[in-house]
Amino acid sequence: MYTKKQTVIPEDVVDRAYQGKCSKEDALVLLEGSPFELFELADTLRAQAVGDIVSYVTNRNIYITNKCAGNCGFCAYRTEKGYILSVDEILKKVDEARKAGVVEVCIQGGYTPEIDMEFYLEIVESIKAEFPEICIHALSPMEVNYAAGISGMSVEEALRKLKRSGLDSLTGTSAEILSDRVRKIICPEKINTQQWIDTVTAAHKIGISTNATIMYGHVETIEERLDHVFVIREIQKETDGFTELIPMSFLPYNNRIGEKMLASGKFASTGLEDLQLIAISRIILHTHVNNIQATWVKLGKKLAQVALQCGANDLGGTLMEDQISTASGGSNGEYVSPAEFEWMIKGAGRIPVQRDTLYRKVSPNSGIEKAHFRIAEEQK
Ligand code: SF4
Question: Distance between CA atoms of 112 and 147, rounded to whole angstroms?
């Protein structure tokens, strides 16, 4: 992000970071300084927040459809003549996943006039009826807004119905960069910044958790990245509904935005930038959002291990499939086994723990432990 300079972080900046009051000016000072000092501060705050546990979830992505009424400039996934899975096909995939031992299914896809709220509700209800032990982490604020609109209901009503149907958690995707300037360039048809904020805030207030995401490394400025993380912090102060932040680096292949960048000699974010964003996110969100994910599917397994020394405490999911990243040139594979996660985490000198979507500890052999607890709380 910035040129490396050897500096010592000012004491008042460190004090505010410990108090969960890092300001935007503080964040810029930290990014302009030595990356090693930044990583060290982030790692210290990580240890204070969640100790040495590194969590991961056994899960499966299920892509309902690759049809989409949107036309995002970074998308390599949408196609004109795509598929829409039937409820039976989705249940079959959930069953395969359950037999493979997963505790979460992550249901996502494009938004299309062919999918309304009734279909989403049927999917959630059917999964919950047949597999009550599996966490359903599904849909994005964009999909909920679109389906609610074509179904003639408000977003709040749609969210309430999803909760009653058994939705455990809404995904925090479609956030991209929470700046309308950026959104007009990369995803003009998507909901705007305020609509994303309003949707996740409404979800949190009716008891649906979400994660938060940031998709960076394209047309946004460093300040816009930071503003995004501060927006997440402000929402969290009001609702306490985010389980984690997932920084996702932009993959510039097979999509319009990436092709323009590559043609002008610009490439994706560097490994150093990836680590700096994880570290500064940990610092900005300290005392507000405990969990920062190093997502192996974007970073690769080795950089994800390094990120565990820079503020991250979670490695995300086993996945089983990741059509979106592979379509955009992701080359880190589509599955990591629990055994490999354990090896990666122990190799980074930390303690592996399986979790579910809501960061409740899971026993690998007996499902979610009866006495649910937040992993971070166990450390205190
Ligand atoms: S990124 Fe998602 S919303 Fe955008 S065009 Fe692709 S499938 Fe549609």
Answer: 8
